[in-house]
Amino acid sequence: MFKATLTIAWITCVAQAWIVPHPQNRPSTQLHVAAKIGRGFQRVKDSLTSAERSREDLKIGIAGFYDRSTKLWEEVWGDHLHHGYYVPADRTDHKQAQIDMIDEVLKWAGVDQATRVVDVGCGIGGSSRHIARKFPGCQTEGITLSPYQAGRGNELAAEQGLANQCRFQVADALDMPFADNSFDLIWSLESGEHMPDKKQFINELFRVCEPGGRIIVVTWCHRDLEPGETSLTKSEEKLLRKINRAYYLPQWCSVKDYVDLMEAQGATDVKRDDWSYIIAPFWKAVIKSSLNLKSVIGLLRSGFSTQRGAYAMFLMLRGYKKGLIKFGCLTCTKPMSKKTEKTVTIR
Ligand code: SAH
């Protein structure tokens, strides 16, 4: 790998020196092409070394990744971009397993009513529409970084007669376009792993939640560190870096880190669970579903990042098997009065 990186770095330098002519006769188109080629090489190099993306690159990357891959996912899997609930483990109706995941999480969190819900990292709004039907009259707001997903979410809401209940827009979860105390249910299903600043993410969830409101975060985490450990092992870090590159993720944190962040906001009834065993059959099912002609053609058409995402399914499977990746469920209530915020350090 190191050798490959050096070779690519070398080719990049030579190509840039060779393509970019003398400053006096440097036409802007040549400059533009040279810069583009340079950026292309840099991207290949970053991919090969699983380099971490900057915050800005990550944000643009997430939007583009979901813009490109969501249509194919919806064709094969429907409108939920999350794991299914596999109890019993041999169930074969995967779409129902995904819907059950929403119901089981709500049950686990003790939520049997909601009037104003924000779906943070909403995909194409499968959770929002399900919750809107489950709790009649409730209003939902969904946010995503992907313009395609926001548009599709609104389209599906209109088709399903839910346009007056569910709205979707492009917005950043780290800086939400909602006033303080706006919602009684904060729902984030498999979007937390994309957040480059977990503290700011949790702070924002608490900010828009009304006092006494409920916060639910279901997200990919790495295992809790053992007493005496200060980091994951090198090989664990390496596996996560490869997954990050494919799925546009920043550094991961543990379920324990999330608990600390919630408690720092004054939440007293934090509940946590590890549902890795419940979702275990999911990735195998996704891999199986991609082994048909329609999926393969869709995959070939949808470009490199979706194909790399498909390959990363095997890495996810490995991470779960090793006990490195955890499907973390967290819930808590926002305190009625704001306590002094405690300091928590997350990588
Ligand atoms: N919760 C949805 C989608 C999960 S996919 C479902 O279960 O179907 C992850 C989602 O998180 C995508 O919609 C992506 O756009 C969104 N996301 C990632 N980072 C985000 C951010 N900073 N702000 C808002 N949405 C974000």
UniProtKB/TrEMBL annotation:
<feature type="signal peptide">
    <location>
        <begin position="1"/>
        <end position="17"/>
    </location>
</feature>
<dbReference type="InterPro" id="IPR050447">
    <property type="entry name" value="Erg6_SMT_methyltransf"/>
</dbReference>
<dbReference type="InterPro" id="IPR029063">
    <property type="entry name" value="SAM-dependent_MTases_sf"/>
</dbReference>
<dbReference type="InterPro" id="IPR013216">
    <property type="entry name" value="Methyltransf_11"/>
</dbReference>
<keyword id="KW-0489">Methyltransferase</keyword>
<keyword id="KW-0949">S-adenosyl-L-methionine</keyword>
<dbReference type="InterPro" id="IPR025774">
    <property type="entry name" value="PiNMT-like"/>
</dbReference>
<feature type="region of interest" description="SAM motif I">
    <location>
        <begin position="117"/>
        <end position="126"/>
    </location>
</feature>
<feature type="region of interest" description="SAM motif III">
    <location>
        <begin position="208"/>
        <end position="217"/>
    </location>
</feature>
<feature type="domain" description="Methyltransferase type 11">
    <location>
        <begin position="118"/>
        <end position="217"/>
    </location>
</feature>
<keyword id="KW-0732">Signal</keyword>
<keyword id="KW-0808">Transferase</keyword>
<dbReference type="Pfam" id="PF08241">
    <property type="entry name" value="Methyltransf_11"/>
</dbReference>
<feature type="region of interest" description="SAM motif II">
    <location>
        <begin position="181"/>
        <end position="189"/>
    </location>
</feature>
<protein>
    <submittedName>
        <fullName>Tocopherol O-methyltransferase</fullName>
        <ecNumber>2.1.1.95</ecNumber>
    </submittedName>
</protein>
<dbReference type="GO" id="GO:0050342">
    <property type="term" value="F:tocopherol C-methyltransferase activity"/>
</dbReference>
<dbReference type="GO" id="GO:0032259">
    <property type="term" value="P:methylation"/>
</dbReference>
<comment type="similarity">
    <text>Belongs to the class I-like SAM-binding methyltransferase superfamily. gTMT family.</text>
</comment>
<dbReference type="GO" id="GO:0008757">
    <property type="term" value="F:S-adenosylmethionine-dependent methyltransferase activity"/>
</dbReference>
